[in-house]
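Exercise 7. Given the encoded structure of a 206-residue chain, write a plausible sequence.
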């Protein structure tokens, strides 16, 4: 959505030209001809264009395994920061998270969101670490940043739904999972959670 396609129009000179001989016409400078049109790259060749197409495919797909493959391709696009140093810090943060060295992971992710604040996955990854540390307020703040940059981030929305459920806000959790399903209809965990929460809320008379 931040991709700006520029179009260039040739400036055509108007006026009545004086007659010229065939020889004169043959020696007219090539600069008098309009420059070739510059065609913007196909939308699908841009990162945003690829994501838009993948999300369209994800919403239409009704085979669970095929939908998982499309979701995986979306994650691959999200993970591309465009910076080798950012990618390296993300890898270090992931390894620290897997080793449950959450403070170390946060140190790396703090640098990521500072150096590249428009990189949605940096915020989402930090939200995940805060969630694992049960720092729900900080996690929700990072989720908010993620969704501001990428409103279709079903991973961040899933995290929000889990926080709402764990803090006793079942209705908000249900709404978050329902939003996930509008983006990724075949996500099995979201389907299960919507079913479970709907039954629980119905049983509570809400």
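Solution.
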């Amino acid at each position: 959505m931040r991709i700006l396609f520029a179009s260039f129009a040739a400036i055509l000179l108007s006026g009545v030209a004086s007659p010229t001989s065939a020889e004169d016409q043959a020696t007219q400078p090539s600069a008098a001809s309009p420059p070739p049109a510059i065609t913007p790259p196909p939308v699908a060749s841009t990162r945003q264009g690829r994501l838009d197409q993948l999300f369209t495919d994800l919403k239409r797909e009704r085979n669970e395994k095929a939908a998982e493959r499309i979701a995986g391709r979306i994650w691959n696009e999200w993970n591309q920061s465009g910076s080798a140093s950012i990618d390296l810090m993300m890898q270090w943060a992931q390894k620290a998270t897997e080793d449950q060295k959450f403070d170390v992971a946060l140190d790396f992710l703090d640098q990521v969101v500072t150096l590249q604040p428009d990189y949605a996955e940096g915020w989402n990854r930090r939200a995940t670490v805060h969630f694992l540390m049960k720092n729900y307020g900080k996690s929700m703040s990072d989720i908010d940043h993620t969704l501001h940059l990428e409103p279709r981030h079903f991973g961040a929305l899933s995290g929000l739904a889990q926080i709402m459920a764990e803090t006793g806000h079942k209705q908000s959790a249900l709404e978050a999972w329902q939003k996930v399903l509008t983006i990724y209809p075949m996500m099995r965990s979201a389907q299960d959670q919507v079913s479970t929460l709907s039954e629980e809320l119905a049983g509570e008379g809400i």
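Remark. The first helix runs from residue 22 to 26. Students should compare their own answers with the one above.
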